[in-house]
Amino acid sequence: MSYNYKDLGLSNTREMFAKANKEHYAVPAFNFNNMEQMLAIVEACAEMGSPVILQCSTGALKYMTKEVTPLLAKAAVDRARAMGSDIPVALHLDHGPNLDAVKSCIDAGFSSVMIDGSHYSFEENIAITKEVVEYAKNFDVTVEAELGVLAGVEDDVVAEHSIFTNPDEVEEFVSKTGVDSLAIAIGTSHGAHKFKPGTNPKLELDILAEIERRIPGFPIVLHGSSAVPQKYVEEIKKYGGELTDAIGIPNSELMGAAKSGVAKINVDTDGRLAFTAGVRRVFAEQPGEFDPRKYLGVAKEEMKSYYKEKIKEVFGSENAYKAGK
Ligand code: G3H
Ligand code: 13P
Ligand code: ZN
């Protein structure tokens, strides 16, 4: 089945980002892998009146399938409307590896895509991004690209160290590619182990400021921005999980970024931790429980309440649109 995202009630990110930059907040881009996570995300955002980007990695797409994923995103729109909220909802491909993956997602009903050429040379990154932008334009689908390399795990690609984005390259990259938003590397990283224990978890905010000076008003994206809440790490460990040296980006470091030119902030790991803590709690406290609604329901509510907290503490996107309940 093939869909146009507009027929699913989805939005691309263009207006979302323009409004976010004008009103000095960031749009939450939360990854999802199943119906419970989708509901947690959309209900949190609808209750807060925050725009939302439902973000889907290639691994998540494989898991949920190409047939189900766009319809889950449509269901998210319907759920928000049933709650009385008018928040825009985008379905975004996270870390798209090549033009074929992008084409197949646009055909499936995605409203926004990322082409991740960050592991290529500057020139190759420009070439592959430009090709994607040219294609996506035909469908009014917005495109995110990345300059610089984040440390950590993305699908099967592992980068040992981050390579911070070079501010000297951003103007040329943006103008030559025609891309809609740009992900940069300033010290965030993917996964639950962002900093070594005993080191100071800091972002390179000077690089961010310099990039903003070079491309004023242009939507900037931060990946790898989970806070790795210690309350969930402790709870997971208490109930038999193994998680050593899990350290994230303090919310206080991100708050300033959200108020600046950063229009989109990606969070996946925090939702996974909240969800897992919820499942483990039910299994530990009610060992006789085997109704999936009972443990997945608790996990969903935990993820939803954490995301509402994060929207308030970091994104600043509450009440940008009509809230619902
Ligand atoms: O950037 C990576 C995201 O957290 C997605 O992770 O590829 O395991 O779904 P995943
Ligand atoms: P976290 O692992 O910090 O949640 O980052 C997610 C991300 O950047 C998805 O693209
Ligand atoms: Zn990412």
Automatic annotation (TrEMBL):
<dbReference type="InterPro" id="IPR013785">
    <property type="entry name" value="Aldolase_TIM"/>
</dbReference>
<dbReference type="InterPro" id="IPR000771">
    <property type="entry name" value="FBA_II"/>
</dbReference>
<keyword id="KW-0479">Metal-binding</keyword>
<dbReference type="GO" id="GO:0004332">
    <property type="term" value="F:fructose-bisphosphate aldolase activity"/>
</dbReference>
<keyword id="KW-0862">Zinc</keyword>
<protein>
    <submittedName>
        <fullName>Class II fructose-1,6-bisphosphate aldolase</fullName>
        <ecNumber>4.1.2.13</ecNumber>
    </submittedName>
</protein>
<dbReference type="InterPro" id="IPR011289">
    <property type="entry name" value="Fruc_bis_ald_class-2"/>
</dbReference>
<dbReference type="InterPro" id="IPR050246">
    <property type="entry name" value="Class_II_FBP_aldolase"/>
</dbReference>
<dbReference type="Pfam" id="PF01116">
    <property type="entry name" value="F_bP_aldolase"/>
</dbReference>
<keyword id="KW-0456">Lyase</keyword>
